[in-house]
């Protein structure tokens, strides 16, 4: 019988396994190792002590045992999620989705919230970098030239992934929706229903975000494919910090040449639109059709089930966390960009145009879902 202590044998077995693991990979719990190898806790702990002294593993309190050289150090520091300090369905979904994805990797989530003003958002991003977190998840809302510069500089030393909304800074990673195609499909539904006077609903400052630019481009592409000219007079541009502040919506909806349909780049303004539609004595979809790109949660309080392209926000957040985790453990900060497909959902907000605006014979009509 070998006189070598039993823990040396367990040490050799564990060492062989650990050398095959990537940096940052988590091992089983001590109790699981004890059960798997059929030895005492003291034996397992002695083997782990040797592996720690050799620098192959590191133990993080309340987190677990990790292959050294990766996320073992990172999990001691939180991942910061930067969001506006508003209670909206989109922000709630992002918070819970990011929390679940980070928890699965034994990483902690820390929030940093800001007011919907450019200076407050810029200050929050600067503070996030100053805290030297493991990484940053960020959905930008108010973009400035200074903010873009801070992002360019910061992502050179701190892993950062934008999610759902993109500033267009090439050096910063991003996970979001294929916005151009989602918007084209959503607008094409209005064209297929026979609408010719189609307006665009978008937040002020949309040109600051690449994804918003792509949604507008998708809208225009669908109009072009349908042989329809875009008229700026049909558009509603609202203030994202106070959606009651928008262009003359009542006047627009009351005019003889009013639009008969709208595509909204997001759902923020839709509750206000529905109120104004009712005030003007109109009905959806009898008098006005509406379609949109956003997440399912934002449509639940609307009086009509909306025809829409849903953003897969849980999948976007999950993939953003995966990319961030890869950047943390590999120390490879090269930008990644991944786009996911939207989900087409048929509701009851799109129908043919009012009879006073019926298209010429031969045009394609879409029947209302009523």
UniProtKB/TrEMBL annotation:
Q: Which PROSITE patterns match?
A: HTH_GNTR (PS50949)
CDD domains documented for this protein? PBP1_LacI_sugar_binding-like, WHTH_GntR
MF terms (GO), sorted A to Z: DNA-binding transcription factor activity; transcription cis-regulatory region binding
Task: List the keywords (alphabetical).
Answer: DNA-binding, Repressor, Transcription, Transcription regulation
What would be one Pfam family of this protein?
Answer: GntR
Give start and end of each HTH gntR-type domain.
4-70
Name-wise, this protein is GntR family transcriptional regulator
